[in-house]
């Protein structure tokens, strides 16, 4: 089942027993399933309401996300070892290369959820150690991808005018995930310079990601207006726009929570004000985009959209809006944001369950690991 076009090349020069043909077409987009699972755990644990049994369920989901991360990392390592030619093809394909941002976000999401719910199982010390390793690796990889993928788009990829895609956001939103999850580590650092440096580094990554997103969003919307709806298989990627919106709202609220112990006045109070002044309008835009994306997905379903791995785009971005709404509920005291977070979490869990079930079924049948089909021809717009 195709999720992006790929150029077929000859297999790598390895003995047949070592080629692992089932891994040849396993791309970096598979990390999205790890991200979508981890956010179910962390978002559920941060809901501003108490639901009996929810934290225990989130702990189970965190364990599942950690196992999935280990499995996908192993499989992707096997892909690079046995199918290096295909891995290089992925990097040179503008439809596939942006998914390398998902590696960073998968590491960060599992590390963050370890501190939020995993510590209930492994203890604070082990959860902290795991998060430090995953956060450091995820941040370094994310910052590298935020530069390397746009560089490849400029000098190596051949991108036709009017082909901008929400997938382009994946590499540049990774530093925003670091900005949102960095506050979990701020209180663990020595008071003074260390905490302040970590806090301001998170704000720097917030700015990096936000400005890069603001550069790309007009291109994406212009592509929709001038070229019409995305191909059916790519329609779920419209939800990716919610990622930087919800994650940035989460980041400013999380950073405001730890600011008083990391930076002096008047900056600590000012950052609390900024969290509300920034988060409220951005969450409003996120809800507008969510409505637009849902309408286009409904249209795509009516036109015959079938399952592909892009359906995981329904999970992580919605999860960031859950944590963003929860942060606004915490800082404004408004019940409306509490119920918004709950409603979005119900949507998240539903999307996760559907995507997870369909992915498991596709794995068992072998459809998701089969060679990609040729992309369908572009058709004229329909209403």
CA-CA gap between termini: 26 Å
Describe the largest sheet.
Answer: none
Mean pLDDT: 90
Helix content: 55-70%
Lay out the secondary structure.
Elements: H1 16-19, H2 31-45, H3 54-82, H4 84-91, H5 101-122, H6 124-155, H7 169-181, H8 193-227, H9 242-258, H10 267-302, H11 316-332, H12 335-365
Helix pairs in contact: 2-3, 2-5, 2-11, 2-12, 3-4, 3-5, 5-6, 5-7, 6-7, 7-8, 7-9, 8-9, 9-10, 9-11, 10-11, 11-12
What would you say this structure looks like, in words?
It is a single chain. With 383 residues, this protein is an all-alpha fold. The N terminus and C terminus are likely disordered. Helix 3 crosses helix 4 and helix 7 packs parallel to helix 9. The protein is globular and about 55 Å long. The longest helix has 36 residues. It contains twelve helices and no strands.
Summarize, please.
By secondary structure, this protein is mostly helical. 68% of the residues lie in helices and 0% in strands.
Keywords:
disordered N terminus
């Amino acid at each position: 089942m195709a999720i992006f076009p790929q150029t077929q090349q000859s297999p790598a020069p390895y003995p047949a027993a070592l080629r692992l043909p089932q891994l040849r077409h396993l791309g970096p987009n598979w990390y999205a399933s790890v991200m979508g699972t981890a956010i179910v755990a962390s978002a559920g644990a941060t809901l501003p309401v108490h639901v009996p049994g929810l934290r225990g369920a989130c702990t189970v989901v965190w364990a599942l996300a950690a196992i999935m991360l280990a499995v996908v990392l192993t499989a992707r390592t096997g892909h690079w070892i046995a199918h290096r030619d295909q891995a290089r093809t992925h990097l040179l394909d503008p439809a596939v290369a942006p998914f390398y941002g998902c590696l960073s976000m998968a590491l960060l999401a599992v590390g963050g959820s370890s501190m939020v719910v995993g510590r209930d199982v492994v203890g604070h010390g082990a959860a902290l150690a795991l998060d430090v390793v995953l956060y450091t690796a995820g941040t370094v990889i994310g910052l590298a991808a935020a530069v390397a993928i746009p560089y490849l788009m400029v000098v190596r990829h051949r991108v036709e005018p009017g082909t901008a895609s929400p997938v382009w956001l994946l590499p540049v939103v990774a530093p925003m995930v670091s900005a949102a999850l960095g506050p979990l580590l701020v209180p663990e650092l020595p008071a003074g310079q260390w905490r302040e440096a970590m806090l301001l580094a998170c704000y720097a990554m917030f700015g990096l990601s936000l400005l890069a997103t603001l550069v790309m969003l007009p291109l994406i919307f212009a592509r929709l207006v001038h070229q019409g709806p995305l191909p059916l298989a790519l329609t779920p990627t419209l939800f990716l726009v919610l990622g930087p919106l919800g994650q940035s709202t989460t980041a400013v609220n999380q950073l405001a929570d730890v600011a008083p112990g990391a930076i002096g006045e008047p900056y600590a109070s000012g950052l609390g004000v900024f969290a509300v002044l920034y988060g409220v309008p951005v969450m409003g835009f996120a809800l507008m985009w969510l409505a637009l994306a849902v309408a286009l997905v409904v249209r795509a379903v009516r036109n015959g959209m079938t399952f592909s791995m892009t359906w995981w785009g329904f999970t992580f971005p919605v999860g960031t809006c859950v944590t963003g709404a929860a942060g606004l509920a915490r800082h404004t005291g408004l019940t409306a944001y509490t119920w918004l977070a709950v409603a979005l979490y119900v949507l998240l869990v539903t999307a996760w369950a559907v995507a997870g079930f369909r992915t498991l079924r596709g794995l068992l049948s072998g459809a998701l690991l089969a060679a990609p089909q040729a992309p369908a021809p572009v058709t004229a717009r329909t209403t």
